[in-house]
């Protein structure tokens, strides 16, 4: 049974940092591309950051580039999202996702990913 479990969300002030974690199980983790998406109330789910199955490539939405960093730890079967200089517009539910052997523009599309976590709430106050 595949499971993705996010943690690390919370309520912070603008300018603060958070580190999200996504622990996975039941996957051949080393073959999975991984990504973080987010969804704010009344908005569609949007791509935030992605990392290829090799770990060699990372991708970011323009809105988070330079502030967020995605990383993976194959030994821990986990993916992380370090979020710095948070802004109120970063407020959303953040989801991690996994899909086999992804790279490039495929990682930007929610439809590429087979497995999703339940989400963790991030709220940034001004």
Relative strand content: over 45%
Count up the helices.
0
Radius of gyration, CA atoms, in whole angstroms: 13 Å
Helix content percent band: under 10%
Order of helices and strands: EEEEEEEEEEE
The overall pLDDT, averaged over residues, is: 96
Unreliable sequence segments: none
* Major sheet summary line: 7 strands, mixed
In short:
This protein has 126 residues and is an all-beta fold.
Task: Write out key terms for the chains shown.
globular; 126 residues; mainly beta; 7-stranded mixed β-sheet
SSE topology sketch:
Blueprint: E1 3-7, E2 10-13, E3 18-25, E4 32-39, E5 46-51, E6 58-60, E7 68-73, E8 78-83, E9 92-100, E10 115-116, E11 120-125
Parallel strand pairs: 2-11
Antiparallel strand pairs: 1-3, 3-8, 4-5, 4-9, 5-6, 7-8, 9-10, 9-11
Kindly describe this structure.
A hairpin with a 6-residue loop joins strand 5 (46-51) and strand 6 (58-60). The protein has strands at residues 3-7, 10-13, 18-25, 32-39, 46-51, 58-60, 68-73, 78-83, 92-100, 115-116, 120-125. The mean pLDDT is 96. The termini are far apart. By secondary structure, it is an all-beta fold. 0% of the residues lie in helices and 50% in strands. It is built from no helices and eleven strands. The chain is globular and about 40 Å long. Strands 2, 4, 5, 6, 9, 10 and 11 form a seven-stranded mixed sheet that branches. Strands 1-3-8-7 form a four-stranded antiparallel sheet, with no helix packed on it.
